[in-house]
Design a protein that fits this description.
Two copies of one chain form a homodimer. Chain A is an alpha/beta fold and about 290 residues long. Helices cover about 45% and strands about 15% of the residues of chain A. Chains A, B: It holds the Pfam family AP_endonuc_2.
Chain lengths: ~290, ~290
């Protein structure tokens, strides 16, 4: 059984799997790349995690996630920057442990508004400022910081960066090999400017990650679990994928789905469903593939 | 008891009130203007509704709502256009029945994607095309069509127009006295371009309605009821109001809140709470007010 050669399974899609089981389920579904999360890595410790990743033979496509850098008080801000430096080091170690073609990409979720604070512009400015404080460390570690614009429904409490254009505005002062953006279908599919901004991101060499999933309706009660499997929702994924590829993105394509039904499946069944829908909808195999 | 002279109570904020009770609750809270909905008007019939409105002495600030013009099949599309022509006529009649300063504004909600259709761009183009079919009728009736950009979380199933900039792009080919836009805080507060687009809308004379409310977290299970009373959430309303006024908007300011707790209050208590929070947060009274 072999999945699309550019498919990467983001660990969040099989959230309950400990690291070893996630690596196994991914490989057994014929998938050759994985997007890791810090929590299951921390559960076994970084040294053990790098061993398991190396033994798996899988590529590592990204580490989720750093960020949460909108705090306005000094102590919380300093702590967040330190935490991000640790995340940068983990990203480098895990990508190094992964198979050839791994990407040292740390996904950054901006964070929401501080409590009782309505100054959205101020929070957005602090995100850019914080990235400025992290760039040197990231560059030294060979890690690309990937700013993830989040769906506007999360602007208040999770991610104040709301569009791909805004993420690129934030990234632009920094070197393109160190600060890029995430193109996550769920977060950006609705944006009237999305195709222009994908082209802009590609022209700058800043597409650090492309993640696919789908937007399902009705919106589930827990809006954090509102994602569906590709083909189950309303996103024109073939067109989005075409735009990302046309913009020059050559990396792995992650499937990242927060969905209770998917989480309730046996891990390998979930991985196989994802691989099948990825081929059918998100990224049909090229005719020239073996 | 007297509320802010520019406050209008949108009927959706006291959703369960029949028309007469809504008019009474509004007036008894010292509010001098009301935003009407078609359903409670239809419940008593348009002739009776105009009588009740005239007897109330209130201004009418808008009628909600027309639109739902994204269908791709011919019959559904024709039916939607006919329905919108009826809504235009109702808008004219109700504004005429209202007190001096009433506004003949019909709020248009675009509608979502047709079933199993992922062509968002096509749906958006059909909205503009439909408005083109309605403009002459609206102009003849003296009614302003107000395109409402909706929060992107509704893009799939309710409103494919997602930003103020996009609503203005759609309105731009048409006369500014017939096609305008709605600035609804809940829908647009997160937009990095919102202040530029408010200025653009004002410069074109296209702000047909300004609606206030708040974005509360956590997002309630029913995302349609995710609005809070001004001051209970994360929107910087003073800044937004300042921008709308600076852009030259001189009309009534509607409070439109879909919120189960508000709906469960006695109507006049809800209206009074709204009037108080409007003064405190959304639009402090000018010092020159009596």
């Amino acid at each position: 059984m072999s999945a699309h050669p550019r498919l990467s399974l983001n660990q969040a899609s099989i959230k309950y799997a400990p690291l070893q089981e996630a690596l196994t389920a991914t490989a057994e579904a014929g998938i050759t790349s994985i997007g890791l999360w810090r929590e299951p890595v921390a559960d076994v410790g970084l040294p053990k995690a790098t061993e398991l990743v190396a033994a798996s033979g899988l590529r590592v496509s990204s580490l989720c996630r750093g960020g949460f850098i909108t705090a306005s008080d000094h102590a919380a801000r300093t702590a967040a920057l330190d935490e991000n430096r640790r995340a940068i080091d983990e990203t480098a170690a895990l990508a190094h442990a992964g198979a050839e073609g791994s990407a040292a990409v740390l996904v950054l979720v901006a964070g929401g508004l501080p409590d009782r604070d309505t100054d959205l512009r101020g929070a957005r400015e602090r995100v850019q400022d914080a990235i400025g404080h992290l760039v040197e460390h990231a560059h030294g570690a060979g890690v690309m910081l990937a700013v993830e614009p989040m769906h506007p429904m999360y602007a208040a409490d999770r991610g104040v960066i709301s569009t791909l254009g805004q993420a690129l505005d934030i990234a632009e002062p920094f070197p393109a090999n160190t600060v890029g953006v995430v193109v996550d279908a769920f977060h950006i599919w609705w944006d009237p400017e999305v195709f222009d901004q994908i082209a802009r991101a590609g022209a700058q060499g800043r597409i650090a990650s492309y993640q696919v999933n789908d937007w399902i309706t009705p919106l589930p009660a827990d809006s954090l679990l509102a994602r569906g499997v590709m083909g189950h929702g309303h996103i024109d994924l073939p067109r989005l994928t075409q735009a990302v590829l046309a913009a020059g993105y050559t990396g792995d394509v992650e499937v990242e789905i927060f969905n209770q039904q998917l989480w309730d499946m046996p891990y390998q069944q979930a991985a196989s469903l994802i691989a099948a829908q990825f081929d059918a909808i998100a990224m049909p195999k090229p005719n020239t593939a073996p």
